[in-house]
Specification:
By secondary structure, the protein is an alpha/beta fold. It contains eight helices and ten strands. Helix 3 runs antiparallel to helix 4 and helix 4 packs parallel to helix 5. It binds adenosine-5'-triphosphate. This is ABC transporter ATP-binding protein.
Length: 232
C-alpha cells in the first residue's frame, strides 16, 4: 500500500506540491483531478518513483519509494511520442523482456479488445490508436497498482468509453488499484471509488464516491464544483 506523508515537491524554487498526505489502499479506482497545473502529473511521477520528494515521504509497503517501485507499479506517463519507429507488437515484445509481470498473451487480448493493429508503426497511428496502445501496454502488466496520467486526454468519447471498459475488463479491482488523472470526471464516475481533488498543489478533498452520492447527494462533477466554490 502507498502512504504519502507531508509530501512537497518543488521544481527549482517553484513549489508545486505542498504538504500532501493520503493513503492509497488496494482494490480501488481513484480519480485524481484538479485544474491545469494543480500538480497531478507531478504527483504521479513521484508515486512512480521517477522523481524524489523535496520534503516528506512516499512509502510503498512501508519502504521509501525509489525508481525500483516500477516492479510493483505500472505507470502510464502523459507523453505521446515514444517508440515511434516500432510497431505495437514490437513494443509488446520489448515490454515482455523488461518486466517479469508483463503477459504477452494478455497484451494481444487487450489489443484485440481495443481494436489495435499491432503491425503498424507507432508514428503512423492516430492519437486515439496510440492512446489505446499505451493502455494495452500498461494493462498487460500484472501489478498491484496502475498509475495512469490522463489516459483519456485528447481522445474522442467512443475511444474514452472503450478504454474505461478495458480498464474494467483487464484489471481485478478487488485487489488492484488504479489511480488515474483526468478532467473527464463524468465519464470515469461509473468506475470510480473515490475522488482526489488537487488545488494549487494541495489536497482540497479526498472523498469516497459512495459518500459523495449518499451524504453529499451529488454526482462527481457537481461535487467537484462545490469543493472549488469553498476556496474561490
Ligand atoms: N519539468 C518541469 N519543470 C518546471 N516546472 C514544471 C515541470 N513540470 C511541471 N511544472 C510545473 O509544475 C506545475 C504542476 O504541473 P503538473 O504538470 O504536475 O500539473 P497538472 O495538474 O498535471 O496539469 P495539467 O492538468 O495541465 O496536465 C505547473 O505549474 C507546471 O508548470
Amino acid at each position: 500500500m502507498y502512504t504519502i506523508q507531508n509530501l512537497s515537491y518543488a521544481y527549482g524554487s517553484k513549489t508545486v506540491l505542498s504538504n500532501i498526505s493520503f493513503t492509497l489502499p488496494l482494490g480501488k479506482v481513484i480519480a485524481l483531478t484538479g485544474e491545469n497545473g494543480s500538480g497531478k502529473s507531478t504527483l504521479l511521477r513521484l508515486l512512480a518513483g521517477t522523481m524524489q520528494p523535496t520534503n516528506g515521504k512516499i512509502l510503498y509497503n512501508q519502504h521509501p519509494v525509489t525508481n525500483l517501485v516500477s516492479k510493483h507499479v505500472s505507470y502510464m506517463p502523459d507523453t505521446d511520442n515514444y517508440f515511434l519507429k516500432r510497431t505495437g507488437d514490437q513494443v509488446f515484445e520489448f515490454y515482455d523482456t523488461v518486466f517479469d509481470d508483463f503477459c504477452l498473451n494478455k497484451a494481444y487480448e487487450i489489443a484485440e479488445f481495443l481494436k489495435i493493429d499491432g503491425s503498424k508503426l507507432i508514428k503512423d497511428l492516430s492519437k486515439g490508436q496510440r492512446g489505446r496502445l499505451k493502455m494495452a501496454v500498461v494493462l498487460a502488466r500484472n501489478t498491484p497498482y496502475y498509475l495512469l496520467d490522463e489516459p483519456f486526454s485528447g481522445l474522442d468519447p467512443i475511444v474514452r468509453a472503450q478504454l474505461i471498459d478495458g480498464l474494467m475488463e483487464f484489471t481485478d479491482l478487488s485487489k488492484q488499484t488504479i489511480l488515474l488523472s483526468t478532467h473527464e470526471l463524468s465519464e470515469v464516475e461509473r468506475i470510480t471509488d473515490g475522488l482526489l481533488l488537487l488545488h494549487d498543489g494541495k489536497i482540497l478533498s479526498y472523498e469516497a464516491m459512495e459518500d459523495i452520492r449518499k451524504e453529499w447527494k451529488q454526482d462527481a462533477v457537481s461535487w467537484m464544483k462545490s469543493q472549488y466554490e469553498r476556496v474561490d
